[in-house]
Amino acid sequence: MKKWQITTIIWGILNLTSGCTTSQANINLNSQIAVEPAPVTAVVALGQIEPEGEVIRLSVPNAQDSRVNQILVKEGDFVQRNQIIAILQGIDQLEADLKDAETDVSLQQAELLKVQQGEAKKAEIAAQTATINRLKAQLKAETIQKQAARNIADATLEEAQLTYQRRQYLSTQGAISIADADTAKRELATAEATLMERTAELDKTITTLQAQILEEEARLTQLTEIRPVDIEIANLRLQKAKIAVIQRKARLENAKVRAPAFGQILRINTRIGEQVNTSLGIVEIARTDRMFAVAEVAETDIDKIRLGQQATISSEYGGFSGDIKGNVEQIALQIGKRTLQDAANTRGPTTDDNSRVIAVKIRIDPQYNSQIAALTYMLVRVKIDINQ
């Protein structure tokens, strides 16, 4: 082989090698450019529309024994705190019971006033006064009668004494017989005994009736006295009547179902005449004037989420048109399992029902509230801008 041919072959090999090296370098550069990931600007997650706070299922303590008599609201109505939502059966009897208890309070108040003013025993005092007056009249009449009988006995004794003295003198003179003198003596003794008897009867009548009068006057004093114990008893009866009113007011109030807070009636679960639904209550209430989207953010993305980041929310199935905006207000402190699932992917091979997520609460801007107020629990897709 000639020298110039060998030289040509060598230059060809060198050029080929150089070309391969350059081509490989270009391939490596292109590969590096292709595999570099695009910068992440947002975290996307499924969520649902929720009102501020919780949806309240309004019920009553004894739901299984209660029936609804009236429903005073409609679905969609806004209600104020303590507004009556429904009335249970039996309220008419409860109102009558309360009126009866209030009447008893008025009665006991009057009784207490009578005791305090001493009028509670007015009739007894009048009867006792009449008894005393009767005894005094009896004492006066019987005293006069007994005194007259004693006066007669006293006069009879004086006459018997004179007769006895005269006959005793005549007997000593022999003018009359001793028998006549003895008769005068016996008459004198009888007159003395009669006087003693009449005197005793008079004294007994006075003593007995005066004692009765004193006893009845003492009783009258007790009746006219306002004793503290009587006032206390009357006051306790009044307090008992007032407690009965409080109890019956509470029972009546329990028959009136009131809204615990301002909100909107989302659904009525118990109709008129029905027993109160023990699981769903009578109505469901929520604060729909302040709406949120609660997104289930994957555990692997939660480190990118910060309070205040802007979020864009869109409906998964056309519940509302366009996008609505909001800001991250709360990030849950616990990790849980996914509860929401896109219906289009529920049967997908990559579906993981046990995936771990964190609830991120996004306050929706107020201008969108009217648009979504009636869409509680609607499935949405949330896109959180993490570049802020």
TrEMBL record:
It is found in: Cell envelope. Transmembrane segments: none annotated. Keywords: Coiled coil. Residues 84-152, 181-226 form a coiled coil. GO terms for cellular component: cell envelope. NCBIfam families: heterocyst_DevB. This is Multidrug resistance protein MdtN. The gene is mdtN.
